[in-house]
Design a protein that fits this description.
single chain; 126 residues; 60s Ribosomal Protein L30, Chain: A; six-stranded mixed β-sheet; 2 helices; 6 strands
């Protein structure tokens, strides 16, 4: 089994015993991204700012793994509140453009560092 663990300084380091992503069999599986800057600073509790940072982090990890937002086949969005669904959906749609990967969105009780949103992805390698 051939596996590569992904690490980029263009996204925040893992805050636990896991990798930013793993590449296996021509696919990349990202860990969930929250609104930490690459320097490890958590953004304020603003859903728009947090969603934009999460998607920037996701893009950086995907690119380091040899993929892109256009290579994403599935995402999962975790929300601290479904009240933020519309705002997240709008920013998410901008980030992906005409590319529309499969997606699940779930509300959860809490997220790491009290984040408002977390997103992970599965993508194809170019």
């Amino acid at each position: 089994m051939n596996m590569k663990f992904v690490q980029t300084n263009k996204a925040p380091s893992a805050i636990g015993p896991y990798s930013q992503a793993v590449v296996a069999n021509g696919m990349v599986f990202t860990s969930g991204q929250i609104a930490l800057t690459p320097e490890g600073v958590m953004l304020e509790s603003d859903i728009a700012l947090q969603t934009k940072q999460v998607l920037q982090n996701l893009k950086a990890v995907l690119e380091e793994a040899g993929s892109s937002m256009g290579g994403v086949i599935k995402t999962t969005i975790f929300l601290a509140s479904m009240d933020d669904f519309a705002a997240v959906n709008e920013i998410y749609a901008e980030a992906f453009g005409s590319h529309k990967p499969a997606r699940s969105t779930v509300a959860v009780k809490t997220l790491p560092k009290n984040a408002l949103v977390e997103i992970d992805a599965i993508a194809l390698i170019k």
